[in-house]
């Protein structure tokens, strides 16, 4: 089925395949995708994936499948023909290789639909045999082509093409086609059709129609005429029924076929794209001189229809047996029509843009008794498949009035592909012995490219299915009152598959009581045993037997856990040796319980209360006659374990009777042990609150160990026991540190008792160790337990530390959990990494950590136990002091150098996530390193996190030529301007740390990183400390080169200066930036271009100016901040030496700026280091003149004495003062004492033969006179 689509464009978000025409072959091995003037053919090929599994992929399409004359024993197609209709009215026939076989113009309107009807074997005598036919729908006409003649013509064309291709000659023109053309009348719009086939009226209908049409005197023929029935959908009326009497119109011999069909040319596929290009409508047959003649259509009025003026049909789908048809309309309804009677028998609503398909299923031979009538034909059932794309659901309905038997959630852009026909070229003779392929309904998902077929079992159409639904109604409301009704309905069902499905549905019901389930299952089992063993379904019998045993087990365990069944063990039994262990770990265990006893969030969906019977049955299965527990999700596993053992652990159920019941059930001791440990470890909060839980656990472990199959009888005490290894595995994998430690202590004592008794019974020679006249057996198993218990104690201490609440005001989060397994898998730095994360969350200062370490080092000789340290830490206010308690357990893993390295790394990792919210405190740790050189960790931080943002800042400033604004900083560097200034300062400190570490690397010996003995088997990634020691040494000049750039950037950002930082360096210097610090680069050397030096000098002078201004503003406001606590004078002097700038020029400029700012005392200090006094004196003389000019000429409070003094001044000095501009002074209002002191300094610096020496003397006299008048 293919036609030229009319849609223009696609909807946004909808796959492009929605605008394509898709057609699938009945064998589902060929698929065609067509759109506008192109098409792709997809054929089926078997492929094998990487895992060795075979799967089918598609690669060819068609609209009609053809077979050879002789047929095939398998009924598979011999070759495939694709029929394509065009908007120009042409219909063309192609092979699967794209070779054009035949083309013919049947009507000048666009082709709307192409449908095919193939041969069907009559299932009953008297049914009219239907012939093959191809029908082509136009807007006002319907063309039908006889299938037999079409098959013969296409086969001849294909053979001719093959011979011509082999001989290299021209192809003979094809023979004409015979067809019928009907002009469908009395309908306004026709969009789809179905050709039902030839039908014959019965006598009653014939007489009824004759009397209605001809009246009372109408004559009736002896035999009813044969008619071809056609159904159309559209508008006005909604559905139309047409009948064409056979023999009323002669077939139209296509005498223009020879002129229409051009020479058979081959339009092969392009190997690159796989697309076949069609010709445009205005380019059809360019060599044709005149348009072919189109025969007129024979009028065919509508016999009757379903009138509905507002409803418009969209599509019609005929059932395989031609008795029913599904119609979709624009109201979102799906209507089921009775084809013979022409009435609507069913309607579904809520299926807008629905797509329909039919599935016909035959009954299997073994599904019903056929012994009485072996020749009885098999029954068939029909199901209507509805795909609703708006809802993304695929539904299967039984017809005519059957229920919905299936519903599937699929995508919203799928396509339902239903060919509606079988192989062509088959008749009553050639179909003998054929296995015709069943018509399939497939769903194509364009988003994934998956083609799914729909298979429906036959029994869903039987009456037992209705009984099944009735039974399910009783199951939903199953009580003791409805138990007999549900039982009778279940026994009435005869089909084994439906009966099994009904039983499984009852057992999985959440409302059915367990007593009713047991009674119904027992009745069904008894009914099956009364029947003939050969006629009973074996799987159903086994299901009833196994489920009945499980229901009885559920009932017995439930009765044992009821309050009436009080435990028989009333005496208090103590566990030998456990008191000493509890006394040792008691304080830390108590603190752990307090930290983990905070209320947590719970949801209504969380499992609570008793275990439902359906959950119990879903987790236990019988395999080979043995009961096995199926491991499901952790919550279900814990719920099952709680149902079996929680009553025993809490002391509310008899332990021995429960264990005896479980042992008789056949569950293996290993699975019971797994369930017990799961309950113990997952219900930690409740366990820690019960004092008797430890004793009950010890009793349960001993009871389970004594079961048959728990401990191997041939087990040697010098080998590891799989039974106790299972306990250790559960403890080391659990993140419940407290419960795991208690389980380990109890299991250790139980294993020790078992090994001792076993060794004594075998009278084996063992290595013994004497302790206070007591003999203790030593074995590999006990050594494993000693190591495990020590690891669990360490994990408990570490978990207690990690459970500390964060400081008030900090964002909360889930408490990190650890286990023995996670620590072993995290490598040698797992403990330090966990503690470093805690230090970051606690926002601990490095000084406090250093104090803890120093105190711990001082106490190393006094082996203070962990409990005393914990008590000491509890007395202190800050919770981070609890870290002291872990140094005793992890002396090597938490060594100061290792911990500092991990802290630095954790801080820089968190800073990289949010550079503005988190302060970059990594550099504060550099003073804490002792033996572990900071060079490695600093180099790692630089290469991993710092250099990327540092280079971005440099390039940004080079681009804008000044300190960038906040928006640009956030865009390119990922932080604001304030954070970027702090970041650049940190970069300077980090690079200085690298240089200091590199200069002193020979003085520090490389430390040896060790691990605790019990944690020596840790495997995983290398720790940060190990990676730091593995780093290569940095190249000092290259680090200094980067530090120089960082200082320039920091200065520009601190004082908002204009700067292109990379322009201050030559080509060698630019190329060396942002390289690996361990590499050797070609750096600048020798003399530098004077112009470049001038630029550098100007920038450093701007830095000093900005710093002096910041100092002046700070002193005016009384603040201590002077340029971010950076000694910019020292920085500039150091930069001057590296940039080959004269330091004396910078000092002179600084002195002038300090006097200009009014900071005379600071200026006098710097003045002592100036070498060129003459130049400085001349500069300061001008500044003194500006101060005096401001006091005499520009002051707002000029007095009479001042005016008289100005008149007595020498004319030369007066003229010189008037030429001064006091507006250049940053602080013009200074005391006369400061100005007098400055003039004296100037006179001291200027030689007597200096040109301005006399002016300096006059200035001194003027200032002194002004002081006297003041």
UniProtKB/TrEMBL annotation:
Its main location: cytoplasm. Residues 280-301 are annotated as: Disordered. GO terms for molecular function: GTPase activator activity. It is found in: Cytoplasm. Keywords: Cytoplasm, GTPase activation. Residues 671-1247 form the Rab3GAP regulatory subunit C-terminal domain. Pfam families: RAB3GAP2_C, RAB3GAP2_N. Residues 16-417 form the Rab3-GAP regulatory subunit N-terminal domain. InterPro entries: Rab3GAP2, RAB3GAP2_C, RAB3GAP_N. It comes from the Eukaryota. GO terms for cellular component: cytoplasm. Residues 280-294 have a biased composition (Basic and acidic residues). Belongs to the Rab3-GAP regulatory subunit family. This is RAB3 GTPase activating protein subunit 2 (non-catalytic). It comes from Pygocentrus nattereri (Red-bellied piranha). The lineage of its organism: Eukaryota, Metazoa, Chordata, Craniata, Vertebrata. The gene is RAB3GAP2.
């Amino acid at each position: 089925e293919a036609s030229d689509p009319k849609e223009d464009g696609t909807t946004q978000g909808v796959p492009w395949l929605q605008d394509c025409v898709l057609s699938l072959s009945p064998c589902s091995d060929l698929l065609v995708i067509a759109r506008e003037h192109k098409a792709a053919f997809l054929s089926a090929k078997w492929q094998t994936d990487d895992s060795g599994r075979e799967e089918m992929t598609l690669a060819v399409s068609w609209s009609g499948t053809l077979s050879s004359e002789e047929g095939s024993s398998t009924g598979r197609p011999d070759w495939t023909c694709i029929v394509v209709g065009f908007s120009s009215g042409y219909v063309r026939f192609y092979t699967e290789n794209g070779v054009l076989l035949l083309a013919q113009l049947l009507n000048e309107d666009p082709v709307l639909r192409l449908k095919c009807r193939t041969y069907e074997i009559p299932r009953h005598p008297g049914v009219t045999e239907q012939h093959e036919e191809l029908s082509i729908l136009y807007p006002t006409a319907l063309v039908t082509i006889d299938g037999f003649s079409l098959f013969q013509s296409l086969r001849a064309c294909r053979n001719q093409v093959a011979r011509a291709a082999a001989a290299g000659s021209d192809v003979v023109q094809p023979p004409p086609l015979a067809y019928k053309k009907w002009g469908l009348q009395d309908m306004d719009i026709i969009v789809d059709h179905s050709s039902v086939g030839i039908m014959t009226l019965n006598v009653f209908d014939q007489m009824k129609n004759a009397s209605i049409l001809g009246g009372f005197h109408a004559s009736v023929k002896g035999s009813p005429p044969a008619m071809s029935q056609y159904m159309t959908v559209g508008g006005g009326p909604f559905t139309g029924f047409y009948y064409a009497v056979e023999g009323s119109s002669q077939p139209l011999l296509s005498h223009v076929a020879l002129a229409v069909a051009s020479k058979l040319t081959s339009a092969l596929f392009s190997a690159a794209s796989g697309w076949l290009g069609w010709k445009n409508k205005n380019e059809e047959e360019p060599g044709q001189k005149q348009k072919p003649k189109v025969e007129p259509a024979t009028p065919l009025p509508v016999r009757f229809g379903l009138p509905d003026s507002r409803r418009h049909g969209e599509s019609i789908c005929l059932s395989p047996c031609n008795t029913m048809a599904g119609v979709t309309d624009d109201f979102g309804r799906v209507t089921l029509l009775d084809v013979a009677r022409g009435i609507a028998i069913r309607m579904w609503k809520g299926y807008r843009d629905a797509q329909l398909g039919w599935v016909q299923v035959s009954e299997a031979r073994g599904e019903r008794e056929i012994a009485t009538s072996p020749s009885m034909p098999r029954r068939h059932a029909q199901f209507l498949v509805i795909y609703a794309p708006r809802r993304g659901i695929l539904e299967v309905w039984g017809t005519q009035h059957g229920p919905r038997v299936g519903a599937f959630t699929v995508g919203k852009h799928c396509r339902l592909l239903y060919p509606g026909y079988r192989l062509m070229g088959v008749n009553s003779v050639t179909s003998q012995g054929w296995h015709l392929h069943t018509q399939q309904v497939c769903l194509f998902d364009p988003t994934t490219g998956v083609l799914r077929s729909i298979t429906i079992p036959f029994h869903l159409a039987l009456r037992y299915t209705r009984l099944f639904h009735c039974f399910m109604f009783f199951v939903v409301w199953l009580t003791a009152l409805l138990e007999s009704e549900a039982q009778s309905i279940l026994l009435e069902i005869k089909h084994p598959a439906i009966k099994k499905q009904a039983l499984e549905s009852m057992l999985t019901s959440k409302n059915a009581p367990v007593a009713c389930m047991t009674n119904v299952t027992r009745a069904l089992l008894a009914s099956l045993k009364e029947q003939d063993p050969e006629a009973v379904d074996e799987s159903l019998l086994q299901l009833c037997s196994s489920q009945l045993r499980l229901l009885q087990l559920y009932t017995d365990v439930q009765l044992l856990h009821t309050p009436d069944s009080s435990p028989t063990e009333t005496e208090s039994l103590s566990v030998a040796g456990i008191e000493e262990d509890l006394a040792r770990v008691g304080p830390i265990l108590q603190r752990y319980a307090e930290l983990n006893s905070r209320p947590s969030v719970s949801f209504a969906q969380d499992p609570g209360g008793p275990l439902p019977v359906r959950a119990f049955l879903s987790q236990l299965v019988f395999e080979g006659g043995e009961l096995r527990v199926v491991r499901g999700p952790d919550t279900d596993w814990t719920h099952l374990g709680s149902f079996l053992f929680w009553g025993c652990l809490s002391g509310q159920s008899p332990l021995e009777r429960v264990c005896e019941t479980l042992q008789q059930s056949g569950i293996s001791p290993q699975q019971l042990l797994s369930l017990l440990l799961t309950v113990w470890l997952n219900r930690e909060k409740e366990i820690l609150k019960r004092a008797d839980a430890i004793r009950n656990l010890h009793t349960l472990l001993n009871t389970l160990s004594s079961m048959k199959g728990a401990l191997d009888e041939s087990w040697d005490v010098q080998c590891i026991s799989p039974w106790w290894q299972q306990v250790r595995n559960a403890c080391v994998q659990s993140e419940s540190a407290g419960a795991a430690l208690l389980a380990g202590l109890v299991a250790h004592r139980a294993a020790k008792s078992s090994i001792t008794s076993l060794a004594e019974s075998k009278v084996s020679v063992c290595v013994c160790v004497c302790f206070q006249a007591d003999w203790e057996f030593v074995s590999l198993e006990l050594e494993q337990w000693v190591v495990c218990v020590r690891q669990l104690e360490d994990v408990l201490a570490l978990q207690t530390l990690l459970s500390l609440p964060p400081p008030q005001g900090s964002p909360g989060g889930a408490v990190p959990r650890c286990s023995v397994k996670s620590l072993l898998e995290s490598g040698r730095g797992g403990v330090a990494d966990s503690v470093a994360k805690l230090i970051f969350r606690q926002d601990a200062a490095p000084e406090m950590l250093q104090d803890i370490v120093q105190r711990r080092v001082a106490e190393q000789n006094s082996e203070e136990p962990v409990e005393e340290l914990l008590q000491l830490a509890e007395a202190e206010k800050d919770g981070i002091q609890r870290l002291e308690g872990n140094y005793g357990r992890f002396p090597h893993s938490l060594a100061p150098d290792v911990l500092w390295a991990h802290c630095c790394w954790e801080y820089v990792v968190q800073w990289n996530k949010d550079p503005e919210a988190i302060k970059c405190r990594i550099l504060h740790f550099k003073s804490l390193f002792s033996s572990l050189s900071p060079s490695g960790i600093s180099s790692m931080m630089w290469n991993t996190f710092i250099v990327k943002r540092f280079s971005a800042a440099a390039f940004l400033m080079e681009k804008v030529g000044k300190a960038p604004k906040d928006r640009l900083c956030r865009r390119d560097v990922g932080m604001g301007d304030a954070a970027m200034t702090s970041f650049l300062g940190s970069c300077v400190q980090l690079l200085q740390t690298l240089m200091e570490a590199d200069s002193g690397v020979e003085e520090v010996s490389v430390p040896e990183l060790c691990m605790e003995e019990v944690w020596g088997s840790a495997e995983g990634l290398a720790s940060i400390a190990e990676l730091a020691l593995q780093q290569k040494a940095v190249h000092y000049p290259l680090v200094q080169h980067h530090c120089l750039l960082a200082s320039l950037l920091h200065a520009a950002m601190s004082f908002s200066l204009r700067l292109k930082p990379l322009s201050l360096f030559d080509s060698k210097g630019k190329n060396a930036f942002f390289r690996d610090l361990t590499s050797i680069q070609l750096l600048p050397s020798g003399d530098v271009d004077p112009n470049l030096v001038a630029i550098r000098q100007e920038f450093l002078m701007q830095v000093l100016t900005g710093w002096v201004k910041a100092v002046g503003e700070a002193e005016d406001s009384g603040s201590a901040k002077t340029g971010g606590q950076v000694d910019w004078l020292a920085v500039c002097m150091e930069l001057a030496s590296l940039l080959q700038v004269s330091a004396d020029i910078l000092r002179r400029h600084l002195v002038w700026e300090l006097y200009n700012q009014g900071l005379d005392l600071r200026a006098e200090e710097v003045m002592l280091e100036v070498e060129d006094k003459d130049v400085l004196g001349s500069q300061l003389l001008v500044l003194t003149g500006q101060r005096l000019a401001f006091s005499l000429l520009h002051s707002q409070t000029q007095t009479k004495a001042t005016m008289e003094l100005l008149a007595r001044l020498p004319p030369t000095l007066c003229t010189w003062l008037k030429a001064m501009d006091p507006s250049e002074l940053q602080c013009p209002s200074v005391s006369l004492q400061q100005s007098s002191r400055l003039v004296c300094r100037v006179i001291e610096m200027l030689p007597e033969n200096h040109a301005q020496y006399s002016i300096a003397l006059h200035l001194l006299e003027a200032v002194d006179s002004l002081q006297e008048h003041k």
